[in-house]
Amino acid sequence: MNDSRPIRAKSGTNHEGTSAHNRRVMIDALRINGALSRADLARATRLTKQTVSNIIEELERDGLVSSQEAVRRGRGQPSTPYGLVPEGAFAIGLQIDRHVTRAVAVNLVGSVLVRDEAGLPPGGPSNGTKVVLDLVAGVRSKLAGIVQQSEKRLVGLGAAMPGPFGVAGSGDDPWMMEAWQKFPLLETLTAGTGLDVGLQNDAAAAATAERMVGAAHGLDHAVCLFVGYGIGAGLILNGELYRGTNGNAGEIGMALLFADGKSTPLEHRASLASLYQHLSVDPADPHLHAHINDLALRGDQSIHAWVEAAAVDLRWSIHLIETLFDPQTVILCGSAPEALVNKLIAAIGPLLPSIAERRGRTLPRLQPGMADPWSVALGAAAGPISRAFDPRFAAILKDSLQS
Amino acid sequence: MNDSRPIRAKSGTNHEGTSAHNRRVMIDALRINGALSRADLARATRLTKQTVSNIIEELERDGLVSSQEAVRRGRGQPSTPYGLVPEGAFAIGLQIDRHVTRAVAVNLVGSVLVRDEAGLPPGGPSNGTKVVLDLVAGVRSKLAGIVQQSEKRLVGLGAAMPGPFGVAGSGDDPWMMEAWQKFPLLETLTAGTGLDVGLQNDAAAAATAERMVGAAHGLDHAVCLFVGYGIGAGLILNGELYRGTNGNAGEIGMALLFADGKSTPLEHRASLASLYQHLSVDPADPHLHAHINDLALRGDQSIHAWVEAAAVDLRWSIHLIETLFDPQTVILCGSAPEALVNKLIAAIGPLLPSIAERRGRTLPRLQPGMADPWSVALGAAAGPISRAFDPRFAAILKDSLQS
DNA sequence: CTCATTAAGTCAAGTGTCTTGACTTATTAC
DNA sequence: GTAATAAGTCAAGACACTTGACTTAATGAG
Predict the structure, then answer these.
(1) How many structural domains comprise chain A?
(2) Which of the nucleotides in strand C have any atom less than 7 Å away from a protein CB atom?
(3) Contact between B380 and B110 (Cβ < 8 Å)
(4) Which residue intervals make up region (Disordered) (chains A, B) (predicted)?
(5) Contacts of B326 in chain A (CB under 8 A)
(6) Does A248 share its domain with A137?
(7) What is the per-residue pLDDT across B219-273, written as a single tens digit (0 to 9) for each?
């Protein structure tokens, strides 16, 4: 009672933690490799055949995996491969952007089953909360109409919006969605849906999506450079999304570039916001995405000029990412129109020499990722799926075991 | 046999993994909080009193913890605190630098018991290997002379040298120790000492040291900006050193700065190498360290000019680190003379506005760390200690369990 | 065609580690 | 002096992985 400073310690673990981890490892292996037999799983995970059998049996009972037709592979008893059941789990993903909000429902393997969007009225959360909650409710009930028992298998709601979170805010920056960023979104969504809610910035969501179904599938170290209205980096480190102390890791858009004696955030030079300014168009125009795509396809000169300028900064960004994170690969993705992303990738090459240039590379240094207005919502939905099923240190610890 | 593509999967775990983790959690808690009673440990780790008792008993048998005098804390039976036994384990740390090699022996709590250094002859590993092995052998036998049974409690040898590792090499860069970097140092040291050997770059080693006994003690997210002959960042992410795909994460010295229309690596502008060039002194001079310290203390004009210039770049680096890693704190350390580091810290402030500027901060954004020629060797030694005793995801997995 | 070989998968007992709940010990508060 | 409180132990129990023998089902060699 006297000198009771709080004691800091990591949580211990027990049998349940072990079991939870092993279940996740199985699911992860099936996700990465496709269907595998129990014997394959035992070899790959270093567990015994018996243990694998028990866990697979349990996963099958839970409707997460199912057996496929036996395959003969030479001598010996044929093996029975088990694969993930797509309908084994669902999650809702929600993207809150400047002028629009999007929601999707995805299944265990990351297929989008339902998608819907709505315009966001000006005025921030006070006007937008209802729109957002209605959108989520709509997607949720459509999902329930498509698949039976979806509610029982709904692992959570993932939200994504531009970062950074919880920062004092520079006030004068018209590109910050400060009202939403300050708003207790997590609490509101939890109260409004009754679901387990998570929140990431949009670059992190894009990275989560790439890891589940895209170019980072099965990789342990990958960075997604996300070009959207702003620009950010989603970090997959040691096989998990890295969030930093306050969920703001990877906010590369705020990195400062020096030119002409003054410093400018990367975001002001290479992002859709900078493109819109360059083109003097209205960011709120709902047809803007298609319009820009058209311009890019047509080889518009103004677009070209912006691409060339942005490519210089992106080339530098990729070099910086390689230098600081030493990833297996860098993935360029965005909510930008696909034609624009393609032009950017073409303009970025060749990359600057870096420590990523080494003999024996198997992956390209830079890969294209998803460039789809829905990829952030997909990534948002991938968050809860990943939290529930991917192997993670935190999932082993006693203080995170649920039932 | 037919389509046997390798199956990728994470390793499963079992009872031993659980037990190993819980042991590590106890040791970690005692390291962070000092001596704790079993009841304290049970509450902090969420394990039961009984489990804690068993583990503590085992750790005591192994000579890693010992009981202290009972303390009365109000009503109830007095508690018996247990603390780490410094002599419970030892490790050797080895630093290989441009002109010198240093070795230290440290104990479980990071106290340096033996230190020794030797000049490195030119010619790289072919001439230097024997010097290095002799130095390690000398420190090892001196340790054996000071403490009994030290060999049995020696958990490994940690080596540190400037990175990057395994890179093609730009050939024309006189600041790269390419011969050593290409040399199979790990294998040579393993063969030459029979110990478990680890290798990190010097910034990573500095971070490891700061985490064990310095400003990053007990922190889960901290970045050490290391100013030495080169400049690098040691990354503590999620409570562990982050190495990246090839052990090259954090090589911020290679980040490119644009000025006057051309790009320059940070390392060429803010590092001891740049200072030596600025002062036109011989980097191989053994008295250089003391000399520079003197100059700094005396307020030398040439030093001052370099400090002012370097501070601009370091301020930018710190902003970049905060932006990309979102750490709890940034620690400035180095093998630079302490007076110089102090001048740098003074010149760096005030920091640039960043996402690290938030209400409710408890730690300063920038803290001074160790500035001691021996800190890299200490960090190198801290590597094996950390690998052996700190809670880590990898330590739970079956494929890393030894006996 | 037969049978040894190979490999997948099951069975049942065994083991290790954490958990549970009652109990003992030691101190303070009233 | 006694009740309350907290640390720590004891012994049985539960859980999840392991072990080794066994069953099943295919191939390949003679």
Answers:
(1) 3
(2) 5-13, 15-21, 25-29
(3) no
(4) 1-22
(5) 243-251
(6) no
(7) 999 999 999 989 999 999 999 999 999 999 999 999 999 877 788 999 999 999 9
